[in-house]
Design a protein that fits this description.
Elements (H helix, E strand, L loop, with lengths): L3 H25 L7 H6 L1 E8 L5 E3 H9 L9 E13 L2 E11 L3 E11 L7 E12 L4
Parallel strand pairs: 1-6
Antiparallel strand pairs: 1-2, 3-4, 4-5, 5-6
Amino acid sequence: METGTEQTARTAAAEIEEHHRFIEEWLRGTADPGLLGGFVAMHTPDFTLCGPDGGVLDRDAVASGFGGGHGAAPGIGVRIRGVRLVAAEGALVVAAYEEHQEAPSSVRRSTVVFARDPGARNGLRWKHLHETWIAPPEG
């Protein structure tokens, strides 16, 4: 029988995978542009992204930049590896993972803070994401 911690870890991994599957499809140009609002809504209103270059963006800035990227990387591949649950306390869940991108090639280590939300896909909404380069993009 699965424990609560095991279920939370599985749910966090599923959310990370689904989120990045949409990012890949969006950048390839194969995602329906009508789904952008749902993607943005998967982030809390106070969402922040600390990118691998050290810049910090709020949800509106991420949505604006991402929205303009539809089809910007038609050959991109995004793979998630090594998802692990860091903590699950009260309303927050923290997970870490590696994001491997191809075309162009890059690798980043990420830590995400989720807010539990039963109305969200997988019961989790993205609250904060911190990314660090392992291997910056080539070229």
